[in-house]
């Protein structure tokens, strides 16, 4: 009897392990394989794209999605100067305090503030969005398999549901979302944003720009990390060469 229970338990574990990833992936197709300027060993962020992406985030996404880990002063990395960052921060209202009377109060944002969240808590966020809280986007490109490619595909992946596919109430059909029914209404429409630099705001353009901005938010130090990596490689190559020359010199006396 014990043996049978053990075997059953093992079988259940195996089945669970097999079903887990398959169910998590749903029947969504692989995301579009897009090439990104910050990809690869020498890749760096495209500052103009990051600024456009921030514009898309500000005018479209921030009403629903927080970006908790980003303080306004971090935006200097996108190429804004200190004055511009000050002006951006001042567009937001943040809660500060308590003051001398023990009261919390509101004031315009300062560069050292983090970006305020759109909802006071997850329950409020879920209640306002058909039961699904919009996730914080600070680390979203790291939190999903295929990172940038997935986020981009999701944003351009809204389409008519195929005939016979039942889209549940409050849901929208998206080709790339696991299970295809997402609680996020299609956020991007052509010309939905007027870019400061005059770029034409097609859905693909906005999706690519905001995705690059989110990739930066998730890894602001990517360029420094790659530079350090390259320096270390260079050092190792030079050190290996020196050691080899040294070894030959020492052994030449013995042969
Ligand atoms: C009207 C509110 C709303 C707006 C505007 C909005 N989203 Fe969402 N978003 C949601 C909700 C709700 C979810 C959770 C969907 C779910 O789990 O079904 C979500 C989920 C997501 C996800 C995660 C998908 C996943 O795999 O779990 C990403 C990425 C995302 N949104 C990106 C964006 C971007 C980028 C923008 C701006 C271009 C944006 N959203 C604008 C409400 C919104």
From TrEMBL:
Q: Which cofactors must be present for this protein to function?
A: heme c
Q: Provide one Gene Ontology cellular component.
A: membrane
The portions of this protein that span the membrane are 228-246
- Has the keyword Aminoacyl-tRNA synthetase been applied to this entry? no
- Keyword Transmembrane helix, does the record have it? yes
Instruction: Report the co-factor binding details.
Output: Binds 1 heme c group covalently per subunit.
The record ties this protein, via Gene3D superfamilies, to: Cytochrome c-like domain, Cytochrome c1, transmembrane anchor, C-terminal
Where is it located?
Answer: Membrane
* Family annotation (InterPro entries): Cyt_c-like_dom, Cyt_c-like_dom_sf, Cyt_c1
Q: Where is the composition biased (Low complexity)?
A: 120-132
Q: Where is the Cytochrome c domain?
A: 48-218
Sequence positions that bind heme c? 61, 64-65, 184
Q: Which SUPFAM superfamilies match?
A: Cytochrome c
Swiss-Prot/TrEMBL keywords: Heme, Iron, Membrane, Metal-binding, Signal, Transmembrane, Transmembrane helix
This chain belongs to which protein, by name? Cytochrome c1
- Source organism (scientific name): Marinimicrococcus flavescens
């Amino acid at each position: 009897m014990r043996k049978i229970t053990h075997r059953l338990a093992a079988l259940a574990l195996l089945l669970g392990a097999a079903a887990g990833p398959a169910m998590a992936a749903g029947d969504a197709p692989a995301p579009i394989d897009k090439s990104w300027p910050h990809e690869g060993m020498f890749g760096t962020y495209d500052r103009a794209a990051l600024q456009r992406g921030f514009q898309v985030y500000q005018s479209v996404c921030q009403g629903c999605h927080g970006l908790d880990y980003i303080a306004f002063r971090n935006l200097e990395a996108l190429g804004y100067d200190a004055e511009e960052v000050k002006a951006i921060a001042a567009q937001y209202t943040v809660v500060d305090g308590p003051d001398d009377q023990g009261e919390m109060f509101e004031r315009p944002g300062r560069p050292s503030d983090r970006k305020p969240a759109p909802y006071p808590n997850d329950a409020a966020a879920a209640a306002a969005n058909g039961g699904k809280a919009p996730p914080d986007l600070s680390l979203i490109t790291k939190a999903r398999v295929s990172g940038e490619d997935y986020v981009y595909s999701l944003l351009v992946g809204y389409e008519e549901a195929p005939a016979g596919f039942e889209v549940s109430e409050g849901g929208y059909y998206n080709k790339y979302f696991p299970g295809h029914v997402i609680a996020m209404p299609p956020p991007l429409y052509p010309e939905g944003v007027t870019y400061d630099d005059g770029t034409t705001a097609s859905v693909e353009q906005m999706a690519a720009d905001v995705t690059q901005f989110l990739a930066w938010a998730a890894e602001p130090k990517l360029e420094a990390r790659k530079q350090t990596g390259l320096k270390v490689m260079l050092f190792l190559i030079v050190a290996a060469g020196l050691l080899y020359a040294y070894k030959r010199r020492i052994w030449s006396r013995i042969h």
